[in-house]
Amino acid sequence: MLLPFSEHLLSSFFLLLAAAAVCPSHLAVNASFFLTSLLCDVSSPADQINIRAESGETVILPCRAPENQTVTSAEWRRTDLESGQPVHLYRKEKLDEETQSPSFRNRTDLQDVENGDVSLVLQKVTTADTGTYECPSRGCGSLRRDVCRLISWS
């Protein structure tokens, strides 16, 4: 029995072979797409950090700018929130409270922005905070994305 990842890998490989048979001149492009897909599938589960917290605690969800560069913007999002509003949006050297999700107002801060540490400090954790959080942070021309899974219980 193949694991889901193995099935995906195998189907991607067969698509690559079929595309090469139809149009050999596009083999390099298709091979590049296949390798990119493979690398993404291999790296994403390992990159996620799981954090457990009890209700009422303060937690820190880690995130650093690329190579500890000066941060120009950082946006923490919870991937399962339908509103699309950020948990914490840092731009122009301050928190943008206007766009912040109301359930996170007055409960978030960033660890040490001046030194490239944009870890999210989340205070008074509740079970409603359980979810997957993403932190794409932009330094001087480069982007890094960190993913954390917060699991809270009462």
Automatic annotation (TrEMBL):
InterPro entries: Ig-like_dom, Ig-like_dom_sf, Ig-like_fold, Ig_V-set, T-cell_Activation_Regulation. The keyword Transmembrane helix applies. It is found in: Cell membrane. Residues 45-135 form the Ig-like domain. It holds the Pfam family V-set. Keywords: Cell membrane, Disulfide bond, Glycoprotein, Immunoglobulin domain, Membrane, Receptor, Signal, Transmembrane, Transmembrane helix. GO terms for biological process: cell surface receptor signaling pathway; cellular response to lipopolysaccharide; immune response; negative regulation of T cell proliferation; positive regulation of T cell proliferation; T cell costimulation. It comes from Fundulus heteroclitus (Killifish). The keyword Transmembrane helix applies. Its main location: membrane. This is Ig-like domain-containing protein. It is a single-pass type I membrane protein. It comes from the Eukaryota. Residues 1-20 form the signal peptide. GO terms for cellular component: external side of plasma membrane.
